[in-house]
Inverse folding.
């Protein structure tokens, strides 16, 4: 991801996906996309979450609790046979 244009395009795609999921009351799929360098979300993820009403992006990013909770929620949701077969 050395090319900034590629990073921006990927960020826009991930934001679109998670906004659609949020609007359909499903967990944020883009929480599963993390930076290879440090295993963390980028600021764009937290800013998107702020725009969706989760709270201040800086507070969401602090400590990793929000990220861990959202990852757990997403994994558990899609591990459910009911959800998997309903939306596949």
């Amino acid at each position: 991801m050395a090319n900034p244009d590629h990073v921006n395009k990927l960020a826009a795609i991930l934001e679109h996906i998670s906004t659609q999921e949020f609007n359909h009351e499903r967990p944020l799929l883009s929480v599963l996309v993390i930076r290879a360098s440090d295993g963390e979300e980028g600021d764009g993820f937290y800013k998107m979450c702020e725009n969706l009403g989760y709270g201040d992006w800086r507070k969401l990013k602090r400590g990793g609790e929000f990220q861990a909770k959202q990852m757990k929620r997403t994994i558990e949701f899609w591990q459910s046979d009911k959800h998997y077969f309903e939306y596949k």
Notes: The helical segments are 4-23, 43-51, 57-61, 65-79, 81-87.
